[in-house]
Amino acid sequence: MTETIQLFITCILDTIYPETGESVVRILERAGVRVEFPPGQTCCGQPAFNGGMRAEARQMAIHTIEVFEPTQGPVVIPSGSCAAMVRHSYLELFADDPEWLPRAKALAARTYEFSEFLVDYLGITDLGARLAGKITYHSSCHLLRELGVDRQPRLLLKGVKDAEFVELAGTSECCGFGGVFSVEHPELSAAMLERKIDNIVASQAQLVVSCDGGCITNINGGMHRRGLPHRAVHIADVLEKA
After folding, report:
1. Pairing of β 3-7 and β 207-210
2. Do 104 and 155 share a domain, yes or no?
3. What phi-psi label fits residue 226: left (phi over 0), alpha (psi between -120 and 50 degrees) or beta?
4. What total of structural domains would you count in the chain?
5. From 29, 66, 111, 180, which residue has the greatest number of CB atoms within 10 Å?
6. What is the CA radius of gyration of the chain?
7. At which of 98, 120, 142 does a domain end?
8. Who contacts 74 (Cβ-Cβ below 8 Å, separation ≥6)?
9. Could you tell me the CATH number of the domain that includes residue 152?
10. CA pair distance 63, 155, nearest whole angstrom
């Protein structure tokens, strides 16, 4: 029987990188998965949660739970930060709520980040992708620290034919985005981004891959301001190249 999944596309991919969302769908379908997209989905509530606006975050979380509750199969999210919000922060939001905590736990239990779903759930590390040149990988904060996902995207990238994978110095260091952090602490954010870009340049890889649209946007903005030819892309954009 064909596996059916529910795609939670995230705000950044929906509004800034819709082509990446399309790549995610094509990759999942190539892997033999039937992709459904609940149309009522909106923001997971993470910006409000991180900004201390817990009441607003709860309303967004409730809406998200209600949208996905009637659906079947795993919920796949091409973002470590949004997946971490659903898996961990929803449980914090509803810790003292006997009605919504079980419902939040049920959604969390069926939620996977994109690379995690491919490797751990489907058992796939080679999607037939092919891309010539050097590539490196930036470990986004929520994906690495909250979800513990690091091995999975690396396995997928090392399976890309003709690509030379090089390790990025300070790969686990934040790029400086951190959502509202970059707005509340712009000087610190800028300094962290400069160090990240210095490490990307030193890697000699023209392409830096990440699993989070926020990191990709922040890194690309910094490289553009410095006039660098390097660029950051979502892992789906690499895996879709066949």
Report:
1. unpaired
2. no
3. alpha
4. 2
5. 111
6. 18
7. 120
8. 3, 5, 6, 110, 111, 112, 117, 121
9. 3.40.50
10. 34
Q: Which amino acid is at 55?
A: A
Q: 131 φ, ψ to 5°?
A: -155, 115
Cα(84)–Cα(114) distance, integer angstroms: 12
Query: Domain range holding 163?
Result: 126-239
The domain boundary, picked from 77, 104, 120, lies at 120
| Residue showing tokens 């300070």 | 170
Q: With contact defined as beta carbons under 8 Å apart, do 93 and 49 qualify?
A: yes
pTM across the whole model: 0.95
In tens digits, what is the pLDDT along the chain, a chain of 242 residues? 689 999 999 999 999 999 999 999 999 999 999 999 999 999 999 999 998 999 999 999 999 999 999 999 999 999 999 999 999 999 999 999 999 999 999 999 999 999 999 999 999 999 999 999 999 999 999 999 999 999 999 999 999 999 999 999 999 999 988 877 877 888 998 999 999 999 999 999 999 999 999 999 999 999 999 999 999 999 999 999 86
- Phi/psi of residue 89, nearest 5 degrees: -70, -30
Say yes or no: 62 and 149 in one domain. Answer: no
Residues 107 and 167 in one domain: no
